[in-house]
């Protein structure tokens, strides 16, 4: 004990790596202690509260009947064996005689193995079984212990009373340079550094003692603050990163706190579906309207995502949401942003038992753990859908161009034939003039080609100018290479990119200028270009042509008609050339549309594959009490609803409208049937009876095969528009998760046929074995049977390493044996007045006032603490 004051002084002045003093909460915690050699016989360590008064150290030794040499002596005396202590019960009774020492110490026997100072030696079974100790220590690493001895500590050896104790590794440093110090460590969780905290840690070693670095959730709600509430008043509640339990009498505010928390984090309760299930949305709306809005209150939630602090503040007056990330500024945000940053899984009272009658609630068990990936797929689906809409519009433009060109070419051919006939009918012309008139159509055809070339030059010039602007913008916004990390590769890569942009700018400028020059018909003093030369040749020929035409004075009316027809033909040919040039620019439209549509459908398949994998995981996580699977193309309800809306006014019978969706769901290959149905419907949507002729309605074999008559198809063709077909084509046939409950080995029944208790137990066990988001449940024990409570408790120990848990509960076993790191208890603000509640206090189970609150408030609280002890065999 002579060394303890020096160690305490060193810890109080601990500094960090930069030499700065550490704050008290970061300094080493020192438990004063003594290594004892007992007459049991074995060694043991006696630890005292971390704040045990230094002035009482000597009295501790006196209580053990020890008289050590004075602290100023050069060395300690020989080890004094306490031969009068033959059991740990004797030692406890000896120490408990002193009121100033009782409940301020804990004893850990040496359980290293079969050594001479270990309690695990052969023949010590009785001493081990009767001892009141809940923990022990080993010299060195626990991993070196033989399996047989380890099974004793784990409570698996009947001869040793199936008594399980927690175990602490010690470094057993025996060198002046402390080379072994800290080589064998144990992590212990406590709220305050006391002997009682160590005892409670041993009683919940699955949760509070670890020989490896403990796992902690990455997404954590740190606190909730309510500026004011008509029911609870102002609230400031700090939360633990692992398991939090809200306790209190009925109507004291536990549920209200959870609803405030969920409202601030924009968690959406399910809407009402039938009169038999509660409307959680309406409940929450009333709560906010009646308790927060009259006071213009705000709710603020602090949370951390992988160590990065976030703050969400929501106003009850207008629902405005403000968000702050790390050291950034508060900014307005949308509900979806909050849900994507901190997704939670939350359930109100009795909501778990309602799950079986709500398909969206059951589906949430599959979607919640993969929400991030599903959001990514949904974003990609939306992006591809927008591309499909754009490419479909371009595709329709291309098809319209093809039809227009065909129509214009037909008109132009007719005009050409008419012009040829008129020329042939002209009389009184010399042979050379007639030959000149016959060559007119050759010059017209040649000029049509030239105009097409000009259109191509114009398009290239426009594209080059647009790309030139993009390159210029990239050069303007080009960031220099970062100075750190210093890298020649970064500088070289930056230089190459800059060089490419510079070269592109020069090349595009030259290309744009050349295109403009080629289109310049005035010349501007430059040498005559081929284009200008052609214009001159064409003008000369036209003058000769017009002169030859004028010589046939006896056919004035025919000449005027010929000139009008030729002018009209020239205009049509010019229009056809422009349309063909535009058509060439859209040559990749069809391929682009098909690629986008294929990518969209592949994303739907990726989502289904993700669902499949998660269903398999859910099945395994439930211990196979739930069997989940995905039925692909299971529901065409949305598809049929869109189809019905598109055919409004068509007078097509309702049962006929449902046929396409029903045929897809029932088909052996639903995906192929879906595409075949869409292909037929697209033909009908694009068919125009006035343009194409009613009798030329396209063939639709798939629609015919499912039972649609010729009259039905006519009604669809007259009503369905291409834009409506596009919307229909982007309405997926939904895949639906299917759930079953294991009634007995290898036998499953529909999940809805299981009892409420069976459903709630299976679902809660599943929630505790999957997911990483905070889990918030109001009174999870509502539908649980007592025999399964300890199974749930065991799953809580594992779950809180991955996800934060926040329960409001009346069940003491969930709180005590589940080992809640934080207990917050609520009571009425004024005795006898049940109109207002408040938070009475918070803390951990190793704090006396928390244990007292549990025993007073919770039915069976004292029994739960006894069970916590009795499972260790004493």
Automatic annotation (TrEMBL):
It comes from the Bacteria. Residues 686-710 are annotated as: Disordered. Keywords: Coiled coil. Residues 228-418 form the Rad50/SbcC-type AAA domain. One of its GO terms (molecular function) is ATP hydrolysis activity. One of its GO terms (biological process) is double-strand break repair. Pfam families: AAA_23. Residues 555-589 form a coiled coil. Residues 686-699 have a biased composition (Basic and acidic residues). InterPro entries: P-loop_NTPase, Rad50/SbcC_AAA, TrlF_ATPase. NCBIfam families: TrlF_fam_ATP (NF045780). This is Rad50/SbcC-type AAA domain-containing protein. It comes from Acidiphilium multivorum (strain DSM 11245 / JCM 8867 / NBRC 100883 / AIU 301).
């Amino acid at each position: 004990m002579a060394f303890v004051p020096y160690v305490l002084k060193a810890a109080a002045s601990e500094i960090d790596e930069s030499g700065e003093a550490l704050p008290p909460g970061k300094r080493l915690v020192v438990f004063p202690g003594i290594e004892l050699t007992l007459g049991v016989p074995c060694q043991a360590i006696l630890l005292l509260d971390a704040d045990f008064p230094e002035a009482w150290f000597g009295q501790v030794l006196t209580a053990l009947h020890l008289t050590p040499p004075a602290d100023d002596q050069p060395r300690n005396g020989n080890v004094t064996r306490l031969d009068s202590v033959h059991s740990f019960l004797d030692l406890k009774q000896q120490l408990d005689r002193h009121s100033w020492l009782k409940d301020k110490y804990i004893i850990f026997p040496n359980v290293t193995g079969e050594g001479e100072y270990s309690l695990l030696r052969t023949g010590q079974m009785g001493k081990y079984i009767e001892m009141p100790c809940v923990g022990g220590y080993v010299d060195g690493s626990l991993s070196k212990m033989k399996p047989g001895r380890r099974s004793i500590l784990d409570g698996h050896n009947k001869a040793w009373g199936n008594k399980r104790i927690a175990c602490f590794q010690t470094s057993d440093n025996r060198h002046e340079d402390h080379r072994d110090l800290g080589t064998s460590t144990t992590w212990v969780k406590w709220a305050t550094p006391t002997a009682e905290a160590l005892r409670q840690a041993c009683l919940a070693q699955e949760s509070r003692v670890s020989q490896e670095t403990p796992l902690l959730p990455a997404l954590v709600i740190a606190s909730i603050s309510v500026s004011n509430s008509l029911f609870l008043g102002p609230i400031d509640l700090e939360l633990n990163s692992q398991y939090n339990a809200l306790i209190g009498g009925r109507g004291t505010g536990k549920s209200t706190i959870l609803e405030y928390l969920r409202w601030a984090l924009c968690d959406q309760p399910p809407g009402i579906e039938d009169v038999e299930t509660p409307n959680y949305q309406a409940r929450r709306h009333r709560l906010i309207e009646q308790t927060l809005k009259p006071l213009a209150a705000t709710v603020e939630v602090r949370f951390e995502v992988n160590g990065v602090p976030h703050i969400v503040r929501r106003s009850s007056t207008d629902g405005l949401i403000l968000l702050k990330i790390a050291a950034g500024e508060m900014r307005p945000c949308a509900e979806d942003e909050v849900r994507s940053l901190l997704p939670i899984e939350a359930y109100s009272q009795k909501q778990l038992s309602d799950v079986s009658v709500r398909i969206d609630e059951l589906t949430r068990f599959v979607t919640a753990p993969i929400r991030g990936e599903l959001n990514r797929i949904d974003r990609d689906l939306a992006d591809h859908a927008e591309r499909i809409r754009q490419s479909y519009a371009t595709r329709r433009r291309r098809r319209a161009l093809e039809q227009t060109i065909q129509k214009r070419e037909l008109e132009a051919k007719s005009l050409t034939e008419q012009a040829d006939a008129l020329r042939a009918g002209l009389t009184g012309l010399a042979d050379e003039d007639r030959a000149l008139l016959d060559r007119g159509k050759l010059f017209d055809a040649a000029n049509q080609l030239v105009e097409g070339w000009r259109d191509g030059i114009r398009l290239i010039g426009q594209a080059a100018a647009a790309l030139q602007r993009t390159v210029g913008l990239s050069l303007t916004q080009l960031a220099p290479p970062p100075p750190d990390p210093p890298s020649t590769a970064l500088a070289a890569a930056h230089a190459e990119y800059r060089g490419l942009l510079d070269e592109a700018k020069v090349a595009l400028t030259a290309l744009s200028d050349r295109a403009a020059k080629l289109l310049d018909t005035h010349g501007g003093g430059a040498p005559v270009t081929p284009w200008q030369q052609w214009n001159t040749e064409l003008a000369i020929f036209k003058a000769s042509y017009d002169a030859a035409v004028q010589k046939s004075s006896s056919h004035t009316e025919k000449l005027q008609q010929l000139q009008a027809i030729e002018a009209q033909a020239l205009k049509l040919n010019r229009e056809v050339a422009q349309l063909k040039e535009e058509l060439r620019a859209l040559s990749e439209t069809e391929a682009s549309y098909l690629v986008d549509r294929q990518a969209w459908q592949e994303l739907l398949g990726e989502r289904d594959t993700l669902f499949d994998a998660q269903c398999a995981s859910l099945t395994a996580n439930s211990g196979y009490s739930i069997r989940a699977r995905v039925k692909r193309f299971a529901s065409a309800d949305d598809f049929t609803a869109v189809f019905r809306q598109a055919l409004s006014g068509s007078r097509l019978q309702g049962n006929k409208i449902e046929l396409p969706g029903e045929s897809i769901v029932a088909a052996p290959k639903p995906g192929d049937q879906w595409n075949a149905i869409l292909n037929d419907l697209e033909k009908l949507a694009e068919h125009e009876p006035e343009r194409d002729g009613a009798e030329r309605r396209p063939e639709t074999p798939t629609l015919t095969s499912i039972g649609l008559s010729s009259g039905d198809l006519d009604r669809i063709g007259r009503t369905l528009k291409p834009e409506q077909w596009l919307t229909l084509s982007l309405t997926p046939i939904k895949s639906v998760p299917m759930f079953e409950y294991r009634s007995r080995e290898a036998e499953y029944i529909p999940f809805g046929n299981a009892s409420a208790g069976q459903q709630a137990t299976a679902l809660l066990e599943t929630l505790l074995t999957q997911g990483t988001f905070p889990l918030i449940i109001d009174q999870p024990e509502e539908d649980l049977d007592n025999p399964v409570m300890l199974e749930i408790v065991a799953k809580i120990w594992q779950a809180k390493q991955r996800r934060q848990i926040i329960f409001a509960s009346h069940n003491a076993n969930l709180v005590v044996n589940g080992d809640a790191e934080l207990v917050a208890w609520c009571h009425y603000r004024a005795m006898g007045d049940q109109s207002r509640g408040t938070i009475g206090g918070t803390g951990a189970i190793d704090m006396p006032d928390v244990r007292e609150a549990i025993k007073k408030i919770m039915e069976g609280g004292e029994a739960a603490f006894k069970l916590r002890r009795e499972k260790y065999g004493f």
